[in-house]
């Protein structure tokens, strides 16, 4: 049971998930995750905003039973249809058979598709800017498509100055007792926000930017996202982080990603790191793609200005873990990076050329490449130093 008051008209009724190991079957959850649901209380009606993932509905339903004193839940607003938030819709209908489900045209199509709820009398279809009165509280709907699915929207309650933002401003990490940012240590949630954004929403920066612009004139005291803390004291900081990420505006630092079978390609990665450090760069993250989870590598690559990628040639292709990383960069249309490539080969320098080509296709600035043959020698070391020097001179962030 997790019923908590955020403000006089808003209750939290979300749940923690500390048992799922991979979010979306892909992304590790070392600190768990919360699925956030909220109740807005009016003097003539009550509305629930989103539900929770079906595997964690027990706590959710217990919270809703605790609301018996509040009265009936009249509306269920669905800001986002991904099943971590929509999964308990059928249970809500069982519990409150007359509840009206409020969503846009795409939401309702998805509810029919996911949950086979076809009776039109269950639905209230709304459009951008529409409002729903709960008496002394109002819900105003703001369409924000592709943050993170096409049906995604936000809901604003002007009387409480609260924005229910869907996945926007969300982060990994279960809620460990606290709910509102002011009442907890937020370091882990903010760090995990980079990983959440880059892994889940990263492809949709233009849409996130539009959504932030569209809601920027609203007076906001609370941002209630679908995952993580309710933002109150740190709203400006959080909005600034997401704004920067959405605009692909990098932070100072360099990510070096490599794969290596016998340590020779790793030698090149280490020499790049050493040279960049010698040239004054202090924030350098080196990732071995063979042993590290892609999720953390994507996060750093997204966050920092410099990106250097290297791999051996393997069966005339790029060593597979590094190719997977390059594919993730292409999928997310990563931008605004200063890049360089390196490779190692026994007899055919395919990997170096393929990595350089992949980085250039992203439209990123390219400092050069180093194609090592078999193992480090004086010639390769000299080439690494030359490329590192050019790379460092191209970085614009101190
Ligand atoms: Fe947390 Fe896109 O769902």
Task: Produce a short descriptive summary.
The protein folds into two domains: 4-246, Metallo-beta-lactamase, Chain A, CATH 3.60.15; 251-394, Flavodoxin domain (Rossmann fold).
Describe, in plain words, how this protein is organized in 3D:
By secondary structure, this protein is of the alpha/beta class. The protein folds into two domains: 243 residues, Ribonuclease Z/Hydroxyacylglutathione hydrolase-like (Metallo-beta-lactamase, Chain A), CATH 3.60.15.10; 144 residues, 3-Layer(aba) Sandwich (Rossmann fold), CATH 3.40.50.360. It is 34% helix and 25% strand. The protein contains twelve helices and 22 strands. The strands form five sheets. The chain has a seven-stranded mixed β-sheet with strand order 1-2-7-8-9-10-11. Helix 11 links the parallel strand 21 and strand 22. Helix 5 packs parallel to helix 7, helix 8 crosses helix 12 and helix 9 packs across helix 10. The radius of gyration is 24 Å and the shape is elongated. The chain starts with a strand and ends with a helix. The model has no long low-confidence stretch (mean pLDDT 96). It binds MU-OXO-diiron. The site of MU-OXO-diiron has 8 residues, from helix 2.
Tags for this model:
alpha/beta, Rossmann fold, six-stranded mixed sheet, binds MU-OXO-diiron
List the helices and strands and how they pair.
Blueprint: E1 4-7, E2 10-12, E3 15-17, E4 22-23, E5 27-28, E6 33-35, E7 38-41, E8 46-49, H1 57-66, E9 75-77, H2 83-86, H3 89-95, E10 100-103, H4 105-115, E11 123-125, E12 131-133, E13 138-143, E14 153-157, E15 162-166, H5 187-201, H6 205-215, E16 222-225, H7 235-246, E17 251-258, H8 264-278, E18 284-288, H9 294-303, E19 304-314, E20 317-318, H10 320-331, E21 338-345, H11 350-361, E22 365-373, H12 378-394
The site of MU-OXO-diiron has 8 residues, from helix 2.
